[in-house]
Design brief:
Elements lengths: L18 H18 L20 H7 L5 E3 L5 H18 L4 E3 L7 E5 L5 H4 L4 H7 L4 E8 L2 E7 L3 H16 L8 E4 L5 E5 L30 H11 L4 E3 L12 H14 L5 E4 L5 H4 L11 H17 L5 E4 L16 H12 L5 E5 L14 H6 L10 E6 L23 E6 L15 H8 L12 H5 L10 E5 L15 H12 L5 H12 L4 H22 L30 H5 L5 E2 L18 H6 L9 H4 L2 E2 L10 H24 L7 H33 L14 H6 L5
Parallel strand pairs: 1-2, 1-3, 3-5, 7-8, 7-14, 8-9, 9-10, 10-11, 11-12, 12-13, 13-14
Antiparallel strand pairs: 4-5, 4-6, 15-16
Helix pairs in contact: 3-6, 10-11, 15-16, 16-17, 17-21, 21-22
The structure holds 4-O-methyl-alpha-D-glucopyranuronic acid.
4-O-methyl-alpha-D-glucopyranuronic acid binds next to loops.
Length: 734
């Protein structure tokens, strides 16, 4: 095994090793692992980033004197969770049992709790500081308590204390100093929610990692112990909510039978600060209540929702609220009854308000009208209602105006509804990005959105500032992610897809975090501390998004996937009744050129953006090339900034994407020996699929567009492996 490497450190603990010392560490590590029985643990990915494997020897020597006991007084379920997490984590990382104590008798105690749970903490006089951090924020300090050097992790809430405990563990997992701590943290967004598109029959819409984690048949009698690990993982990154069922909802979820099941799940999640939300079907008053209508202005309907909310809160006192998809893709909604979105959302909000619940209303609404641009639809449908939603309604807006494409410009609703509480919705599950077969690190893409400047209040009015309340000072803030988890042993299908779950939580906690830092943390916690390997993997992760865009939809192309399942290319697709479900609607290829004209000469959807973004996008000469075909119909011979024609540039992007998959496979192969063989082999298999798919994408798309461009492939682009007819004949399999 070639272990010549330095051990990674994120901040400054110097850990340079020579080959010999690493050899020694490896031996000691193996011996200790055998001693601890750690070697029996399969590296199947189940433990996610909470593996708590033995740290490098030098760090153990540094940390051990500072971590001798865990002092968590009190007996609530959350305090028990904190205690057991710290004991398990510290013992695993440091290779020596860490004692549980009631009080501080030695140096190195880790004292955790709230002023209510711990007299040690209430005696510190930190009331003012803790009050400023809220119940989810925490303070961590290296402290002299009497004669003893200890670490205090304190919060005004047990959830905050738990987050602090995970923060402290992460410091060790990522080899940071823990000897002089003075940390104050609080989440920047209030609602940090995973949305599961899980159906009651156990299937998952757009799920690529097995079946639903919620076994509705077995619940509430039998609760899968795995749910506790799900909650731990979420708490470790600060996720505080989970919507259990698909937004394409089934009314049954609101029956007493199912609510008992939901309550059983909520009981497991509660100690980890994870609140449960549900997606109700708007027509439930008809389906469950036997009413003739679900008209939101009908007093009987409103009364039904009030009663239902009361019933829910009796069973689940900390229930989060409703996530609603209404009048979208066939779902019923207020417009079914000639009412509007505000009527629907506010009626439900009134039912939840007495219990402090919220309504999260989705802005993913688009109509099927002739000549209509889907990219303009959500804005047209929702923007006029700015300022009219009740104070416990949030409007959840996808990152881009179409639908979780590999790359989209930011959604024009960000910055267009200053009097509405907007939540950013991103998709962890890779519906349009190669399912759980392709390595793509999504925080890189989400950063792009968060950093996009809307210019709503002049320069520096970024999407991040719209959602975190710094631009409009809204009461409620949030970020939601469509979950990528399932019953697969490794949770997400692809080991690297775990990083998207991790990264979502980290960004929802702090939307300013650089994606490089998120990746670096995750790699250290999940794979290795080897500096060289961390560097390589980090680079591959950061490059991955651009690579996927290159081989799927470069230069602003979008929605050219195979119809229905969305895996693989089908730019020729034109058979759906609805125009806006057909790829040909989006790319508009013809003899003249390629792309959707969204300027004044076309749909003018670009006008929904503020100046100067609007002007930059609208002008062919200033439009960023990565959005060129999103906003413009561009001649095949149009000169790009590189001096090449658009056609040549397009083809070279596809080739570049393929090349990336090839070099990535080689680089990953070279990490054999640094990464455990089990996960190494599994990732290698996925990378082989990714290369196969990238080639397929390049060939199928270029062959098809070539029927319009009538130009040869430029030098440097491989000749297609099959004919266009063959690519059209059957979809890429996954
Ligand atoms: C849950 C896209 C997906 C649908 C999904 C929808 C949504 O259209 O293809 O599966 O439905 O988005 O976000 O509601």
């Amino acid at each position: 095994m070639a272990c010549e490497h330095q051990t990674s450190n994120l901040k400054g603990v110097n850990l340079r090793h020579k080959r010999n010392s690493i050899g020694l560490i490896a031996c000691v590590t193996v011996a200790l692992q055998l001693f601890l029985g750690a070697s029996t643990k399969a590296e199947d990915g189940y433990r996610l980033w909470l593996r708590y494997e033995l740290l490098p020897k030098q760090m153990i020597a540094v940390y051990r004197p500072r971590v001798t006991s865990v002092v968590v007084t009190g007996k609530s379920a959350s305090l028990n969770a904190i205690r057991s997490e710290l004991v398990e984590g510290c013992t695993g990382l440091l290779g020596k049992p860490v004692a549980v104590a009631d009080t501080v008798v030695h140096d190195g105690a880790i004292v955790v709790g709230t002023p209510t749970s711990s007299s040690l903490i209430s005696g510190l006089g930190w009331q003012r500081q803790l009050a400023g951090l809220g119940t989810e924020g925490f303070r961590i300090r290296s402290f002299k308590l009497g004669h003893h050097s200890v670490t205090i992790i304190a919060s005004n809430g047990e959830a905050g204390a738990l987050y602090g405990a995970f923060y402290f563990l992460r410091l060790m997992q990522t080899l940071q100093p823990i000897d002089n701590l003075d940390v104050s943290e609080k989440p920047r967004l209030q609602l940090r929610v995973l949305d599961h598109w899980d159906n009651l029959d156990g299937s998952i819409e757009r799920g690529y990692a097995g079946r639903s984690l919620w076994d509705w048949k077995a619940l509430p009698e039998k609760v899968d112990p795995r749910l506790r690990d799900y909650a731990r993982a979420n708490a470790s990154v600060g996720i505080n909510g989970t919507t259990l069922n698909n937004v394409n909802a089934n009314s049954q979820i609101l029956t007493p039978e199912y609510l008992r099941k939901v309550a059983a799940v909520a009981d497991v999640f509660r100690p980890y600060g994870l609140r449960v939300y549900l997606s109700p079907r708007f027509s439930a008053p008809i389906e469950l209540g036997g009413l003739k209508t679900a008209d939101p202005l009908d007093p009987e309907v409103a009364a039904w929702w009030r009663k239902k909310s009361d019933e829910i809160y009796k069973m689940i006192p900390d229930f989060g609220g409703f996530l609603v998809k209404a009048n979208s893709e066939g779902q019923p909604g207020p417009r079914t009854y000639n009412r509007n979105h505000v009527d629907g959302a506010n009626m439900m909000a009134a039912a939840l308000a007495p219990h402090n619940g919220v309504v999260i209303w989705r802005a993913f609404v688009y109509d099927a009208k002739p000549g209509y641009d889907r990219a303009a639809a959500a804005y047209d449908n929702l923007q006029p209602f700015d300022g009219q939603f009740a104070s416990n309604v949030l409007l959840q807006v996808k990152n881009g105006p179409i639908d979780f494409q590999p790359r989209e410009p930011f959604h024009p609703l960000f910055g267009a509804m200053p009097k509405t509480q907007l939540v950013l919705e991103v998709q962890l599950t890779q519906e349009y990005l190669g399912f759980s077969n392709h390595l793509v690190f999504l925080p890189q893409m989400w950063r792009e959105i968060l950093d996009s400047d809307t210019y709503a209040n002049g320069p520096a009015s970024t999407v991040r500032k719209v959602i975190d309340g710094s631009l409009y000072h809204q009461r409620l803030t949030g970020m939601a992610g469509v979950a990528n988890t399932g019953s697969d042993r490794n949770w997400t299908g692809h080991h690297f897809a775990q990083a998207n779950w991790y990264g979502f939580g980290r960004l929802a906690w702090n939307p300013d975090l650089p994606s490089r830092r998120i990746a670096e943390e995750w790699i250290n916690m999940t794979f290795t501390h080897d500096v060289k390997a961390v560097g390589t993997i980090n680079r591959l992760m950061l490059e991955s998004h651009e690579a996927v865009v290159d081989y799927m939809t470069p230069l602003g192309l979008h929605h050219i996937m195979w119809g229905g399942h969305h895996y693989g290319p089908a730019p020729w697709w034109n058979t759906f009744d609805r125009d806006d479900w057909n790829p040909v609607y989006y790319h508009r290829a013809d003899e003249r050129g390629l792309g959707f004209d969204r300027t004044e000469t076309g749909s003018n959807a670009v006008s929904q953006y503020h100046a100067p973004v609007r002007d930059r996008f609208a002008n062919l000469n200033t439009c960023p090339e990565n959005f060129l075909l999103w906003f413009h119909h561009v001649p095949w011979d149009y000169r790009m900034r590189s001096g090449r024609t658009m056609w040549d540039e397009l083809a070279l992007h596809y080739q570049r994407g393929v090349d990336w998959t090839r070099t990535t496979r080689k680089e990953w192969d070279a990490l054999a020996g640094v990464i455990d063989s089990e996960r190494h082999a599994e990732v290698a298999k996925k990378l082989a699929i990714q290369e196969r798919d990238a080639i397929w994408w390049r060939d199928a798309v270029l062959l098809y567009f070539q029927t319009f461009s009538k130009r040869p492939l430029p030098a440097g682009v491989d000749q297609p492996a099959k004919s266009l007819a063959e690519y059209k004949a059957k979809s890429l399999s996954w």
